[in-house]
Amino acid sequence: MKRKQISALAAAMFTGAGVLIAGAAHADNFVDRGNPDNALSGQCIDGTNPLCVSTKSGSYVAVSTANVTMGTNAKAGTSGIAIGDQSNASSKGGSGSGGSIAVGVGAQALANSATAIGTVAVAQGNTSLAVGRQSAAIGDFSMAVGNVADARGTSSIALGHSALASGDRSVAIGGANPTSSDGVSNGAAYDAATQTRAGGTQSVAIGAGAQTNDNNQVAIGSGSVGANNGGTPVFGGTAAPVGGAVSFGAPGNERQLKNVAAGAADTDAVNVQQLKNVNGTLSTSIANVDARVTSVGNSLSTTISNVDQRVTSVGNSLSTSIVTATKNVVKYTDDSHAAIALDGSNGTTIGGVAAGVADTDAVNVGQLKGSVAPLQTSISTAASNITNLQASVTGINTSLSTAATNISNLQAADARNVKYDGQSGFDSVTFVGTNGTTLHNVAAGVANTDAVNVGQLNGGLSSLSTSVTNNLSTTLGNLSTSINSQIGNATKNAVQYDDDAHGGVTLGGKGAQSPVGLHNVADGMAASDAVNVGQLGKATDSLNQSITTVSNNVTTLGNQVTTNTGNIAALQQDALQWNASLGTYDASHGGNGAQRIGNVAAGKNGTDAVNVDQLNSAIQNGTSQLDALAVKYDDASKTQVSLGAGNGGSPVRLTNVAEGNVAAGSTDAVNGAQLRRATDGTAAALGGGATANPDGSISSPAYKVGGGSFNNVGDALTNLDGRVGSNTTTLENHETRIGNAETNIAGNTAAIAGLQQDALQFDPKLGAYNAARGGAPTKLTNVADGNVAAGSTDAVNGGQLSGVKSSLEQQITQVSSQAGEAVKNVVKYDVDANGNRMNSVSLVGGDTNAAVVLKNVAAGTADTDAVNVKQLKGVQSSLNQLGALAVQYDDSSKSSITLGGAGGTRITNVQAGTLGATSTDAVNGSQLYATNQQVAKNTTDITNLQGNVTNIANGKAGLVQQQDPNGAITVGKDSGGTSVNFSGTAGDRVLTGVAAGVKDNDAVNMGQFNTALKNAAANDQIRAAATDANTTWIARADAGSIGATATATGKNAVAVGQGSVADRDNSFSVGAKGSERQVTNVAAGTAPTDAVNVQQLNDNLSAASNQAKGYTDQRIGQVYNSFNDLKKDMYGGVASAMAVAGLPQPTGAGRSMVSAATSNYHGQQGFAAGYSYVTESNRWVVKASVTGNTRSDFGAVVGAGYQF
């Protein structure tokens, strides 16, 4: 390859031109690896076209600025890299930021920044990593390394063959025993019993077959099984909550924990050496005591014997005195004399307390009642106003408790692993449980550095306790005399309990009447501590101010609620509301009836309202579709209807046509059945075997007339007419002769004019000659033969008529003989059984079952005329045209009719339909217009209403406003008023979601008020004054705790808040050692054991502390985020560098190579693609590559080297 070509290739790579290595070589722009100098062209590598490299396998590599793929059917999404046949590096659904990497046959990286390396490896979670054959990283941020390793939980880690980490943030490290040596064909073959499984959230399993099945468990070692917390071990002192359990084995297969460094902190594990040291120290101490006691005992043996009886007597008396004195002595809690603890089971009454004067003096109940009494009325008023808030506060407390639990879980999420302290040395392990961590399944320690278990420790302590008790008993006896003397002196001036019940302490002694001042009383802190006058004054002043503020706030809130109620009433009048009587929303406004709803958005779902545009569009679309199928007149004259697309269209069948009226004057259409009956009747009338065909035609009859066969009535009648015609001629001749006779008779009429009476005269009434005489018929005799020629009017006589009669009879006989067969084919009326004529004619052909065709039938005109085929075809044509325009059902179900107009079909002259709940009538335009007018009006009204509602909903208008989404919410800021009334028609309302008040004018919630009520009710159980269903009760006879991980182990103790510990009897704790909390909203105490309110002392400090903390957290968070981004950028840079370093290059002279590589470093992926070339002299090596990473950083490098 020439230098010019190398430069052009590098330019093409850096200007973004794609590089394609394809199975099919191209003649003009490909690189022949056998002879590259002959293959390249400027057009191929000038940066405008891909670089094509032929291969023999048919696989391909595609490198572009968007992604890199290599292999048959390899697929890569945005910024993705896919290497291997069927590999896939693309986010599911094609969405996301991409950046996934899949390397290996069938490797699948299906999420953003996911990496899958290995045959059929799957990385399905975001930023997940799967390395190894059939490995799977399913959870987000999960990592699976090893053959068939499976990391399913979020942020889980599975390392080793078949390791399974299914819990969130779980860790499984270890490999199972394979069950087949065929690691290629059966990658999933392993012994399930030796599979490492971490099944619980934040659990850890390390070692072949190690298993954890519950949250926070730790199993270390082959075959170890995670153990649940076995309870809180208590050897003395405060109970320590257990944050989890670590197992080093399984029941029956425990392990020793060796090389345990000596514990230093209280929660550190101790090793055997420490235990031995303790035992050694104790043994030495006990031995020394034993030696000294033995020496003293020997020396005093005689003395003891002498005074034993006296000592025993004194000891008995002393014991009684000690018990009696110590039982009722009130003592300081320690040598600092800073506090006195009264240990009555239900509190202790201090009687005879004089009224305190100084700030550190104790106050008596008289002073307290005098200060509290004026506050009771205010408290009662506040109680009635705040009672409605109780249910809301209860919900808030529940939410806060839940939130506290969730926060606690989140804070401990990444602190579940057991690890060495520091980054070097590895000489200590610190368990991070708040109050220590229990190690389960610890075998008995042997070596000095081994951990000891509870059994060993209890054994040593038991032995030590017995030895110490025996050796110290004598020493304690020797000290009794001295103690008795000191107790006697102390009793004289001691403040003592009044009785053994420790229920009261009377200053000056039980029964004393004179008050005694209790001076130098420190500020009470705990709930049962005494308060001094200074605290009482401050509490009273603060409570007065708080009650005044609460009263003012409640008054203001009432005024605002009153205003809000008015606004709500106005909104209700203008709002579209449900009308129960109508069962629907009613758009009427006041007494104005129906109103228009404006600004209605286009409906989407089936139950959404539609606006006018949708309705008009639907009508237009429906009209267009209806017009396309409608049957309509051809023009405005309404004289013709053409079915189908018009006269030129295909005929349309008109079905389900009712039988039309066939009476005279009827214009009804007839149906096929009627026409069939007509054709059947016609065929029957024709006879001669004529039949009605399915197509409406009639088959030809067959008539036998005069020995001939005729297929239509006309031919048969013609033949018969010809034969009858000759007879007619003969008759006409006779008629002529008769006519001649009549002429002669007429000529004689004049001659006999006088013979009127006897003459044959014309009778006008009869319209003929009347031969009657005297009213009786007469014969005309002697009548000469009349002329029977044509035109003759002669009368004929009997002789002539006789001849004619004979002739006619002869001819009729002949005709009858000749027409014998013809008579059979004559169409005639049907007759009944009696020979009476019926009103029907049956046509019978030669075949009595065949239909008869009537030909030459004139077009019928009268209603009762027969119609011919031409008329029938006209009807058929009309029916066809009618069918094309007829409105028909779509199918036999008759559930729909589709109008066939191409652009919709208009239906006019539609009568107004009934508008009712069950009406199925069609509505016409005028009805729809009225609806549209109302909808338009409603749309405008709704638009105006929505604008108002939107402004109210967005906090831009109305009584309640919020200008910014996260800004403060104001109520009635632009209106006056000094009280808010929340009452409604159903009575008082509950105001929920009230945060705890901090400032003097803040509202207090039920949690704050419950505390105040508790203190004001003379140390009763916590209860609310209200009696409704929303009252919150918290009461427990023994002990109780509220909050995640809160514990109350002391008798009658209460722990409130996440992690709180109450381990003293009759104590109330809101925190734990090292995790203390402030108690806020405490009402002034009324009884000696009530807590006092110190909130006013901490307001300013709390505000300053919170502000500083918030600012510090913000700044630290910003620095951390910046550092974290920088760290990820650095990891990305390292990943890019690793990918570049992984690019191979050719080794043979004159060889070229296009290569790609990918890498992963600390969760960041890098990729690189490059081209390298070795000159024919094998001296120069030229390389050019491009890099990128998942931090969206890209780079390029070009280098050349000379080897010698």
Q: How would you describe this protein?
A:
Its main location: membrane. Residues 257-293, 350-389, 440-474, 519-556, 596-627, 653-694, 779-820, 855-883, 906-949, 991-1024, 1078-1114 form the Trimeric autotransporter adhesin YadA-like stalk domain. Residues 1-27 form the signal peptide. Residues 99-119, 123-147, 151-174, 198-224, 1048-1072 form the Trimeric autotransporter adhesin YadA-like head domain. The chain has 1204 residues and is an alpha/beta fold. Among the domains are: 3-180 and 189-241, Serralysin-like metalloprotease, C-terminal (Alkaline Protease, subunit P, domain 1, 2 Solenoid), CATH 2.150.10.10; 715-824, no CATH class; 1119-1202, Pantoate--beta-alanine Ligase, Chain: A,domain 2 (2-Layer Sandwich), CATH 3.30.1300. The protein has 16 helices and 50 strands. The chain has a 16-stranded mixed beta sheet, with no helix packed on it. α4 packs parallel to α7 (533-574) and α10 (713-748) runs antiparallel to α11. The chain is elongated and about 200 Å long.
Distance between the ends: 20 Å
Q: Rg, please?
A: 60 Å
Uncertain regions spanning at least 5 consecutive residues: 1-59, 181-187, 231-241, 1016-1037, 1092-1098
Biggest sheet: strand arrangement: 2-3-1-4-5-7-9-11-13-15-17-19-21-23-24-27
Second rung of CATH, namely the architecture of one domain: 2 Solenoid
Number of strands: 50
Strand content: 5-15%
Provide mean pLDDT, rounded. 68
Helix content: 25-40%
**Number of helices, where a helix is a run of at least 4 consecutive DSSP H or I residues:** 16
- The structure class reads alpha/beta
CATH topology of one domain: Alkaline Protease, subunit P, domain 1
| Top CATH class of one domain | Mainly Beta
Shape: elongated
